Each structure stands twice: as C-alpha cells, then as structure tokens.
Predict the 3D structure of the following.
Amino acid sequence: MDFANFLIQLLNSVQYGLLLFMLAAGLTLIFGIMGVVNLAHGSFYMLGAYLAWSLSERTGNLAIAIALGVVLSVLFGLVLERLLFRHFYHRDHLDQVLLTFGLIYIFEELRSILWGDDVHAAEVPALLSASIPLTDTLSYPVYRLFMSGVCIVLAIGLWLLISRTRLGMKIRAGAFNREMTESLGINIQLIHAVVFALGVALATVAGMVAAPVSSVYPNMGSQVLIMCFVVVVIGGIGSVRGALVAALLVGLVDTFGKVLLPQVASMLVYVLMAAVLLWKPEGLFKQ
C-alpha cells in the first residue's frame, strides 16, 4: 500500500469513526445517564437519512434540510420521551428492551408508509462535490472531509456542553446520583428530556450528513446499531470521551481490516471488543 492509498484509508477510517461517535454518543448518554437500553437508536439514524433526502428534494438545499431536520428531531425526541420513555426509567431493562424493540418495527412501518420501500440518493451539494487530487489517479471527495468537520465541531460542542456548562453539571449530577440531585431542587425529568432529545438529534444529524454517501434505504438503522453498541461497550458505558476513542479505534480496525485482511475483516471489530473487555471489563473510560 503506497502513501496515497494509506492516506485515503486513514481519512476514511477517521470519517467513519467520527460518524460512529455521533451515533454512539447519543446512545451512551441515554443509557449512561437515564439508564434506558434503547434498541431503537438506529431508527433515529434512519430518520435523519430520510429527512435529509426528502427535505433536500423539497428545499433544493441540503444545509436547509439539515437545519430543519435538527429542529424536527429535537421535537420528536421531546415528544417520544414524554409519551413513552419517561414511564420506563424505573422499569427493568427487559421492559425497556421490549419497548424499544417494538419501536423498531413501528418506525420501519411508518417509514414505509411515508416514504416507501425504494432506495433513494441524497444529492451532494454542488459546493462540496469536488475532489482533492492526491496523485494523478487518486483523489479524495471534499464532502467526506465536510462530514468529518461537522462531526468534529459537534464533538467539541458536546464536550463543552457536558463539562463546561451549568446544564452539563446538572446532567453529570443526575447521572451520578438521581435522588440527591432531585433533593437539591433540580428538575431531573427536564434533564432527562433534554438528554434524550440531544441523543436523538445526534443520531439524526449522523444520518443526515451520511445520506449523500451511503444512500437512503429501508432497515439502514439496524446495520449501524450493533456497531454503536460495540463502541459504547469498548469506550465505557456513559463516557462520551470513551465513545470518541472507541469509535476512532473501531473505524481504524474496520477500514484497514477490509483492505488488508478482507477474509476476517467482519470479525476484527469484535476481536477488538473482546480484547478490551479482557483488559478492562468496564471499558476504556469510566463515566
């Protein structure tokens, strides 16, 4: 593998890892802070992809579609938390699994009713449709760099929110000791609603920015859900920093594994997870 090919695969692995982080960050926040096992998290990724395609078709602009999609996803998350998830915080994880597993089928049926079962392609904006030449025959799409840039900006914003703001302090306090936080007069239900809406928005944004690259098709959320859980387990449940490190590791192992060891590439990520769990059963980072 020459340097140009290595650079392309490295950029691909970072871009894939950052996209996984967007998904896993929302999942680890919801599970680590609210204690809810959300198997429907991949459906929010699918929702984002379909919103990007349908809204960009109507507005003619992917940026406007993403902005509208973020607003809609936050509202959807708030409504979903209020109507369903709020009643399952103190229930067994099995009840949460059954609820969210059922939601997968509901969301898929709604997707089929609203958008049909065809495969769609979201257009890359003309401003980002160029490629950066690396050699005479190899180039790298600008849009993939844009995807990485969006994920990096959101990762920094999420870190600042959790570690540097008053809201982040309340979120961390609620995750550490819910009863004590409530006794101090903090509205823990509001905190949970905000966290859930944030998690939904992160997954939706990941789906929206990935839509022009991965296409938009039925059951696309199910394919990324398992990888998200792998990232959460490797990074440590509830740790946003762990989700970032684990997502980048998974991106590197998965991308270079498919290039260098295609015969066993499908199992390398799980070998990585097993090795980390043998070394640190709680994951790379604690909450």
Strands lie at 131-133, 139-141. The mean pLDDT is 88. The chain has one domain: 16-220.
